Amino acid sequence: NFEYNPKEIEKKWQDIWDEEEAFKTSTDRSKPKYYALVEFPYPSGQGLHVGHPRPYTALDIISRKRRMEGYNVLFPMGWDAFGLPTENFAIKNKIHPRIVTENNVSRFKNQLKSLGYSFDWSREINTTDPEYYKWTQWIFLKLFEKGLAYKTEMPINWCTQCKVGLANEEVVNGVCERCGGEVVRKVKSQWMLKITEYAEKLLNDLDLVDYIEKVKISQKNWIGRSEGAEVDFNIKDTDDFIRIFTTRPDTLFGATYMVLSPEHPLIDKYKEKITNYDEVLEYREIASKKSDFERTELSKEKTGVPLKGISAVNPVNGNNIPVWISDYVLMTYGTGAIMAVPAHDERDFEFAKKFSLPIIEVVKGGNVEEAAYTDTETGILVNSGFLNGLEVKDAKGKIINWLEEKKIGKRKVNYKLRDWVFSRQRYWGEPIPLVYCEKCGWVPIPEEELPLTLPEVENYVPTETGESPLANIRDWVETTCPKCGGHAERETDTMPQWAGSSWYFLRYTDPHNDKAFASKEDLDYWLPVDWYNGGMEHTTLHLLYSRFWHKFLYDLGYVSTPEPYQKRTSHGMILGENNEKMSKSRGNVVNPDDIVNEFGADTLRTYEMFIGAFDQSAAWSQQGVKGCRRFLDRVWKVQDIIVDGDSFSKELEVKMHQTIKKVSLDFEQMKFNTAIAAMMSLINDFYSNGKVTKGEIKTFLILLNPVAPHITEEMWQLLKFEGRIYNQKWPVWDEEKTVEDTIEIAIQINGKLRGTALISLNEEKESVKEKVMSIDKIKEILEGKTIIKEIYVPNKIYNIVIK
Ligand code: ANZ
Ligand code: ZN
């Protein structure tokens, strides 16, 4: 009965940890704090998949190690539970989304518990809990109060299948990121959040944080800062101007035509003058059905219509140039109009080729007969009047000054970042706590009346007009205006799923507070999050949104750090055995429950950390799972060869110190796989040494504990070590003992120095002799001679006397 039986011991220890509140965050503020965070899951109907344990185990390892290092650790967990899949499931199965959510949460929680994570469950939060979303609504009202929430008619991305508006970030390759449905553009009145007001801070403050490089880069690209100029082109024979944004004002002399976005307002203003106005309207209609992604895709065939009857004047040379409309120019970026420089811009080049528009080279270096020359580093200006001979960067400065002097243009910075579409026409989300009064406009619900809870409805299907199902509950919609007491109507849109996750890390610091979203004291103590790990897919949405909300609360004085997360890392995906994404349709989904049942949670944890470099994707391998189980079996069996002795044996002393060092440092750098490999190697050495001292096994178990907490806790108890392993001290290594002591000795023959040898300190004479005699040069000298005497001065000289 000395078999390793994870089924028994894992449940046993999970219960003990619960009972002892082993991982409850301490209120002791004298200790240094450590806040470790993983992205809370969306409790989907599918339950946990094997992708979840990878990041969770990683930060569980860090959290357990930190506790042993003497930190007060906050490692919380909760549920990001609003959202479409739950609502769609509820509609299909006629179950209330709240019930669906409860069921899913309870399943997820059991699964997480079965993996032995050291979460502080007393701080569990759920974004759909009215006590939670009260504060989501409260923050929204603050944004509204400060003018950062506004409602506007705007063309939005509309998922034809989900019947909701989507943020740009939610449209992936032209389709809805959730359902894969077709996305078209639709004009709708939507609540928007002015994240653009924070574009600069969101960009600049990346310097304050320690994010892995690829996360920083994608944040930067998403914010998309462009430096350039705005330039006004006169519409010939009128007082109107077409304002354009360009990053290449140096190429102004090469602007041979202009392009307006099909939605540009000047088109309507000039409908009398535009002789092919019908054709223009027809083109606009077709463009309106395309997503921004389709419109701007580089490879797509260029289309467009000239605005016949009007032309523009190039301000640098007075040339008349034609004005076109084309869908590759977006109304939502810059000014919605461009000057086209086909010699130096790829899209303009293709467009000019297709419609036989003139191409004028203004920067030398390429071959503009064949392709646009887009280099901005090395070219020299030509065909450009007073800019001729200048390098691009100098030409830019000079032309901008010239434009500013003449008051026809100015320096300008643009951001790709768009305001955040904050409305969803769905039921399962936080109600937006505003009412509309004919007299007073949009009026916030008084703070004392929060939370504004979701009313019960019969039917969650969005209305045919695309309005939220809440619009049908008239007695909820009809209300009175808090300001004037007159008749008012509630907003029926709800918030997007990103709302609840934009501030959840703040709530964890004080999750049961009913006076504030968290107390200042708790926020001050715990923030910033010391280490946040999450998926790359959340780099442009959640990470940016939550940084925005945090910065907003910082500006209002509610939080004391400008950034929410000090460090951000990201894990790779776990793929199926054949290196494909795991999916139901491929039939290659591995259920973590099955692995736990067959091999144990410790095996699953060890395997997911051993599977490969943490930041890279890795293919599942059942063989690999078995290998990790075999390793734990060998750890267990070490109990057969344990001998007394609190210290490390001579043979293994160096190896022990090396392993402590390697595991400690590797964990910090998320090199979990190599840390585990080092522990596997140490186990092998235990066996080849034929014995393990108590001191050695003790240290080994502590090192392995963060990865495999159950088996190590059980062995700790069986070996009658004191207390629990979870509150031991993390071992420290002695740097000097991590290197084998090697020294150089001199070799003398008949009193003459003939060579040196490397030996380890205090090496036995016999083995030193062996080394000396195996040196080629020594062998040569001794060839055919007789050794009369050998004297070894330990650690110094090996003397040989010959005849
Ligand atoms: C003339 C020019 C010459 C341009 C050249 C580029 C190269 P980023 O870096 O993305 O900011 N542009 C401006 N507004 C646009 C809109 N609403 N829709 C589509 N394209 C637009 O790119 C800025 C450049 O994208 C601008 O500089 C403009 O083309 C185009 F050799 O102006 B450029
Ligand atoms: Zn009113």
Automatic annotation (TrEMBL):
Source organism superkingdom: Bacteria
Residue stretches making up the Aminoacyl-tRNA synthetase class Ia domain: 12-216, 416-607
Catalytic activity from the UniProt record: tRNA(Leu) + L-leucine + ATP = L-leucyl-tRNA(Leu) + AMP + diphosphate
Record keywords, A-Z: Aminoacyl-tRNA synthetase, ATP-binding, Cytoplasm, Ligase, Nucleotide-binding, Protein biosynthesis
EC numbers: 6.1.1.4
CC annotations in GO: cytosol
Motif 'KMSKS' region, residue range(s) on this chain: 581-585
Domain Methionyl/Valyl/Leucyl/Isoleucyl-tRNA synthetase anticodon-binding: 650-766
GO terms, molecular function: aminoacyl-tRNA deacylase activity; ATP binding; leucine-tRNA ligase activity
Gene Ontology biological-process entries: leucyl-tRNA aminoacylation
Residues reported to bind ATP: 584
InterPro entries listed in its UniProt record: aa-tRNA-synth_I_CS, aa-tRNA-synth_Ia, Leu-tRNA-ligase, Leu_tRNA-synth_edit, M/V/L/I-tRNA-synth_anticd-bd, Rossmann-like_a/b/a_fold, tRNAsynth_Ia_anticodon-bd, Val/Leu/Ile-tRNA-synth_edit
Domain Leucyl-tRNA synthetase editing: 220-404
Compartment(s): Cytoplasm
Family (UniProt): Belongs to the class-I aminoacyl-tRNA synthetase family.
NCBIfam families xrefs: leuS_bact
Full protein name: Leucine--tRNA ligase
Recorded name of the encoding gene: leuS
